[in-house]
Design brief:
The complex is a heterodimer.
Chain A (H helix, E strand, L loop, with lengths): L14 E12 L2 E13 L4 E5 L6 H8 L7 E6 L2 E2 L5 H10 L1 E4 L11 H10 L8 H11 L15 H13 L5 E5 L7 H16 L3 E6 L2 H4 L4 E6 L2 E7 L6 H5 L1
Parallel strand pairs in A: 3-8, 3-9, 6-7, 7-8
Antiparallel strand pairs in A: 1-2, 1-4, 4-5, 9-10
Chain B lengths: L2 H14 L1 H38 L4 E6 L20 H8 L7 E10 L3 E3 L2 E3 L2 E5 L1 H8 L5 E2 L4 H5 L4 E4 L1 H8 L8 E4 L2 E8 L14 E5 H9 L6 E6 L5 H16 L9 E5 H44 L1 H9 L4 H42 L9 H28 L2 H6 L2
Parallel strand pairs in B: 5-10, 7-9
Antiparallel strand pairs in B: 1-11, 1-12, 2-5, 2-11, 3-4, 3-8, 6-9, 7-10, 8-9
Classes of the chains: A alpha/beta, B alpha+beta.
Chain lengths: 248, 414
C-alpha cells in the first residue's frame, strides 16, 4: 500500500476534514445538510460512509470529490485547502487525482466502451499517443477486453459499472469515490464490482465508498456512519468482508 | 479538450440525432440558398442589362423632360413634363448648336391597344422615327420599309410593327398595306421588323412605331415629347455633345441657373452607373431580406441547442466530474452549434449554386436570354462564414447555460 503521499516525510493525511458544514440556501430557507463533520483519511485507506438517505453522505462525497464546496469548516486535500482551488484547478483534481463511480453508471450511451473509458484522458491534457494503450490497460483491468468496441448501451448493468470503474481509474487517480456502486446491480454483478474495487484498494488506491448497505460497507477497513449531517460513529471494521474470501 | 476531440465529440452528438440535426439546419440551409440564389441571379441580371446597354446605342444620349431624379422623393415628378417641344428639336438639329449630333429623334409613348378587324392587341406604341431605329439600334424592317422624313413632316398615318404584333393581329395574313386601328385612327402597315427578342429596354418584337408627329397630334393631342434621343457621330464627342445640348436647351428655355433645368441628359455611361447602383441596392436589399431568414434559422438553432443542453444535463455533470472545465463544456456545445450552422451554410451554398445554374439554364432556354451564370464566390464564402457566425451567436447562450451547470445538480438530473 504505497502511494505518493504516504511516503512524504511529514506523513500528512491525504484528506483532512475539520468541522465541515454545508448549508443549502433556497428561497430564503437555509437547510443545513452537513453540520460540523471532522475526520482524516489516510492514503491507501478503504473507507465506507454509511447513513440513511438524507443523512448528508452524498453531499459529503461531492465535497470530498471537488464537485461541491463546503459553506463552513475546512477541507484539506493533500495538505491544501479546497478553498484555494478555482474552477479550473478543481477540474484538474477531478481529472488527475480523483475517479468517480456512480450508482447509475453515467456512461455516454452513444460512445463505445473504449471511448467512454478514454474520456477522462481527453480532458487530461496528456500526450494523445499514449491514450489508446492506457485505455486498453484499464479495460483489461476490469476484464472487458472482449467488449472494447461495444456501444455502451448494449452492455449489462454489471458490465456498465465495470466500464465506469475503468473510466474512473484510467488516469491512475489516488482516490476513487464510489457512490452506491452496487445499488443498481444484482448481487452477482455487485460482487464482481466489489471485487474490482477491493483489488484497486490493494493496488494502493484510496477508496471512499458511499452506501446504505452494511454488507457492502464492511468491505472497507473503516466505516463512518452519518446521521442528520453529523458523524454518528467512526470505527474500523472488525470482520472485514472480502469477495474473494466469500467465494472460497 | 483539444480541437480535434471537440470536433469528434460534436460530430458524434449531431450524428446521434441525425434527423433532428437535419431539421435544425433547414432554416440556415434555406437562408443561405436564398442568398446565393439572389446574388447569383442578381449578378446575372446585372451583367445582362449592362451588356445590353453597352452593346446598343453606345453613342446615344437621351434627353428627358423634368428633373433628374436624385432621391426617392423626386420620382414621379411630372413638373416640366411638357418642356421638350418641336422648337427644341429644331435647335438641337442645328449643327452650330450641337456639332456632334448626327441625328435627333424625339419620341412619345402612346398607351392603349391596336386592332385589326376583330383582333385586338396591346403592344408598346411609340411615336418615333424608324430611321433612328436603323441608325442607332441597327434595326431595319424585314419586310416592307420604314417611314421617312416626309412621312414625319406630313403626319402620315403609317406604322411599322414588330413580328409578335404581326402574328397576333394578322396570323398568317400579310400585314403589309393593311390598315390597323390605333385609338380609332387607321394606320397603314408599311413594314415589319425581324424577330429579335427581348432587349434590356423593350421587346422589339412587341413594338409599333408610328411617326412622332402623327402620334402627337392625332393620338395624344400634345405638343411636347416624352423623350428626345440624340445620336452622336463619335463616342469621343459624347461628353462635349452633352454640354452643347444642355447649353442649347437652356438658351431655348431661357434658363440661366443649371439647378433650374427643366430637362436632363442621360448618357450611356451615366445610365450604366445609375443602373449599376440601383441593381446593387436591389441585390443588397434582397440579400438583407433573405438574411432575416438566417436570424430565424439561428433562433431555431438556439432553441434546439437549449433542448439539447437540458437533455444532456447528466452528460454535462459526468463530463465535469471526470475533469471537464466550464470552458471545455462551453467549447463543446459551441462547436456543435457552429458545426450545425456551418454544415447548413455549406449545404446552402451547394444548393444555391445548383439552383442558380438551373435558373440560368431555364432562363437561357425558355426565355431566350443570353443569361450567363456567374459563381458568386464572395457570397458563397460570406454564406459559410455568416452561417458559422450565426452558430457562434445563437450557440453561445445555450453553451453558456451548459457550462454554468452545477455538477452535483447536473449529475442528479433525471
Amino acid at each position: 500500500m504505497v502511494s505518493v503521499s504516504a511516503i512524504k516525510w511529514w506523513s500528512m493525511s491525504l484528506i483532512q476534514v475539520n468541522d465541515l458544514e454545508r448549508t443549502y440556501q433556497e428561497g430564503g430557507v437555509s437547510t443545513p445538510v452537513l453540520r460540523g463533520v471532522s475526520f482524516d483519511i489516510e492514503s491507501g485507506e478503504f473507507l465506507s460512509i454509511m447513513g440513511p438517505s438524507g443523512s448528508g453522505k452524498s453531499t459529503l462525497l461531492h465535497i470530498l470529490g471537488f464537485l461541491d464546496k463546503p459553506t463552513g469548516g475546512q477541507y484539506l486535500f493533500d495538505g491544501r485547502s479546497v478553498a484555494d482551488y478555482d474552477e479550473k484547478a478543481s477540474a484538474q483534481v477531478r481529472n488527475h487525482r480523483i475517479g468517480f463511480v456512480f450508482q447509475t453508471f453515467n456512461l455516454l450511451s452513444r460512445y463505445s466502451v473504449f471511448d467512454n473509458i478514454r474520456l477522462p484522458l481527453v480532458y487530461s491534457g496528456t500526450e494523445e499517443s499514449a491514450w489508446a494503450e492506457t485505455t486498453r490497460a484499464a479495460i483489461e483491468a476490469v476484464g472487458l477486453t472482449h467488449r472494447t468496441d461495444y456501444p455502451a448501451n448494449q452492455l449489462s448493468g454489471g458490465e456498465k459499472q465495470r466500464v465506469a470503474i475503468a473510466r474512473a481509474l484510467v488516469n491512475q487517480p489516488e482516490v476513487i469515490f464510489a457512490d452506491e456502486p452496487t445499488g443498481n446491480l444484482d448481487s452477482k454483478s455487485g460482487a464482481a464490482v466489489m471485487e474490482i474495487i477491493e483489488q484497486l484498494n490493494s493496488q494502493g488506491h484510496t477508496i471512499i465508498l458511499v452506501t446504505h448497505e452494511t454488507e457492502t460497507a464492511e468491505h472497507a477497513n473503516r466505516v463512518i456512519r452519518i446521521k442528520d449531517g453529523q458523524i454518528e460513529s467512526d470505527r474500523p471494521v472488525a470482520n472485514r468482508r472480502s469477495v474473494k474470501n466469500f467465494r472460497k | 479538450m483539444n480541437l480535434k476531440h471537440l470536433i469528434i465529440s460534436a460530430w458524434s452528438a449531431l450524428h446521434t440525432n441525425r434527423s433532428r440535426s437535419a431539421l435544425t439546419i433547414l432554416g440556415i440551409v434555406i437562408g443561405i440558398t436564398a442568398i446565393i440564389l439572389t446574388v447569383a441571379i442578381g449578378q446575372g441580371a446585372q451583367d445582362l442589362i449592362l451588356n445590353e446597354i453597352q452593346g446598343q446605342g453606345s453613342n446615344m444620349v437621351v434627353i428627358r423632360p423634368g428633373r433628374q431624379p436624385k432621391g426617392p422623393s423626386d420620382f414621379g415628378d411630372t413638373l416640366f413634363a411638357d418642356s421638350l417641344k418641336l422648337s427644341d428639336i429644331e435647335a438641337l438639329k442645328r449643327k452650330s448648336n450641337v456639332p456632334g449630333a448626327a441625328d435627333v429623334a424625339p419620341a412619345v409613348i402612346v398607351p392603349g391597344s391596336i386592332s385589326y378587324g376583330n383582333e385586338t392587341y396591346r403592344p408598346t406604341v411609340f411615336g418615333w422615327s424608324t430611321d433612328f431605329m436603323g441608325e442607332v439600334f441597327n434595326m431595319y424592317p424585314e419586310r416592307g420599309v420604314g417611314f421617312n422624313g416626309l412621312d414625319i413632316r406630313q403626319l402620315s398615318s403609317v406604322a411599322v410593327i414588330g413580328p409578335k404584333v404581326a402574328e397576333e393581329l394578322f396570323g398568317n395574313e400579310d400585314p403589309l398595306g393593311k390598315n390597323v386601328k390605333i385609338k380609332g385612327r387607321n394606320f397603314r402597315v408599311i413594314g415589319v421588323y425581324p424577330k429579335e427578342g427581348q432587349s434590356a429596354f423593350f421587346n422589339i418584337d412587341d413594338v409599333v412605331i408610328v411617326p412622332y408627329t402623327t402620334a402627337q397630334k392625332y393620338l395624344l393631342g400634345i405638343d411636347y415629347f416624352h423623350e428626345v434621343m440624340v445620336n452622336i457621330s463619335d463616342p469621343g464627342l459624347v461628353n462635349r455633345a452633352v454640354v452643347d445640348i444642355e447649353a442649347t436647351l437652356r438658351e431655348q428655355h431661357g434658363i440661366t441657373d443649371p439647378d433650374k433645368d427643366d430637362f436632363f441628359v442621360v448618357t450611356q455611361e451615366g445610365m450604366v452607373e445609375q443602373l449599376q447602383s440601383i441593381l446593387n441596392i436591389l441585390t443588397l436589399f434582397l440579400a438583407s431580406v433573405v438574411a432575416i431568414s438566417l436570424v430565424v434559422g439561428g433562433i431555431g438553432i438556439m432553441n434546439i441547442m437549449l433542448v439539447s443542453v437540458t437533455e444532456r444535463t447528466k452528460e454535462i455533470g459526468l463530463r465535469k466530474a471526470i475533469g471537464a472545465t466550464n470552458s471545455d463544456i462551453l467549447s463543446q456545445f459551441l462547436i456543435e452549434a457552429v458545426m450545425l450552422t456551418g454544415l447548413g451554410g455549406i449545404v446552402g451554398v451547394i444548393l444555391g449554386v445548383l439552383l442558380s445554374i438551373g435558373a440560368t439554364i431555364v432562363l437561357g432556354h425558355f426565355v431566350g436570354l443570353n443569361w450567363a451564370f456567374s459563381f458568386p464566390l464572395a457570397a458563397a464564402i460570406l454564406g459559410v462564414v455568416v452561417s458559422s457566425g450565426v452558430g457562434i451567436i445563437f450557440g453561445y447562450y445555450p453553451a453558456r447555460q451548459a457550462a454554468k451547470k452545477d455538477p452535483v445538480e447536473a449529475l442528479r438530473y433525471e
